[in-house]
Amino acid sequence: MSTVMHLNLRVDPTQYIPQIREVPGYDYIHLVRHPKYMTDLSLLNEKVYYLNEIYSKRQFVKNNHISLLHAHHGQLGILLLPFKDKTNLPLVTSIRGRDATLANQPVGYLENMKMLFEQGDMFFPVCQYLADRIMDWGCPSEKIRVLYGGIDLSRYHYRPPSLGDSQNILSVGRLVEKKGHHILMQAFQKIKDKFPHATLTIIGRGELQESLTSLSEKLNLGDSFRLLNHLPKEKVREHMASADLFCAASIVSSAGDVEGIPNTLKEAMATGVPVISTNHAGIPELVTHHQEGFLVQENNVDELAEALEFMLTHRELWEEYSIAARQKVEKNFDATQQLLLQAKYYDELLGGS
């Protein structure tokens, strides 16, 4: 069995653990840059190492029988170029969102990415939108394999949308600008008087928590709005199961940061919750307007308000949308299938081993 050395930002459950530890037919070595990035000690084992403590790259590769290098962000691919140079191993780099932009990047980032495109062997953008962006930067198309992030469908059981009177709208995601929570809150405020029993719940944590709390007061959302701190996955699934609509109001941030495709949107679709989202980044690869859900122009409060009103007044469409949505996720975003595809791409680089 071949061993892949993976480098990701930190060791925690949100950081692509299955794509590191569960690739069929491949063993793993799990690197982070420094011990401070070992953020979840339950995931610490004898296969976790720290890049800053590796003094001989060749010896490390030999001792651990490593055949392939995989960096899980563009920035980390740049960091592994010296490792590739010393060991002559093939290097794969995943591209996940911000790393295909110049948002908050260090000086020289684009030049370094161009060097990575030249020297790296394969790139896994998480959607076609990001594939197109890195091709615009000069990445050769023959090195690109779009690899959608999959979800574990055994944890998300489809249930038909509720035919009751509840109007619970849910959004889940980090409290950062590109998630568009502030746009959703303003859109919700516009429809609140028409739907006095509707509620909006946002689950997440991040730098905008105080700002969003202030916004809710400014908009007089009152008891119809809840901002819940980051919750364990099982609690999020409980909220998902009781939601009537899910909204991901993703936007390009003022610094230029973008999404790939939000996993929470895939999870809602797998669960059978009708979805509203935006024509942002790779989202239209997941949701086709009026087929698996409802899409609006990003960063547009009025359009999003109209979408909320449309969905709340056309409950008869929910089941049709939700069935199509579940089928779309099963077809293209099933974690089991995506991990098999990842293994197939590794095989390509290693000559079918």
3D architecture notes:
This protein is an alpha/beta fold and 353 residues long. It folds into two domains: 2-150 and 334-349, Glycogen Phosphorylase B (Rossmann fold, 3-Layer(aba) Sandwich), CATH 3.40.50.2000; 153-332, 3-Layer(aba) Sandwich (Rossmann fold). It is 38% helix and 16% strand. The protein is built from 13 helices and twelve strands. It has helices at residues 17-21, 57-64, 74-87, 109-119, 128-136, 181-191, 209-218, 233-242, 263-271, 283-286, 301-313, 318-332, 335-349; strands at 2-7, 26-32, 48-50, 66-71, 91-95, 122-125, 168-172, 199-203, 225-228, 245-248, 275-278, 294-296. The strands form two sheets. It has a six-stranded parallel β-sheet, with helices on both faces. It has a six-stranded parallel β-sheet with strand order 9-8-7-10-11-12, sandwiched between helices. Helix 4 (109-119) links the parallel strand 5 and strand 6 (122-125). It is elongated. The relative contact order is 0.13. Pfam families: Glyco_transf_4, Glycos_transf_1. Keywords: Transferase.
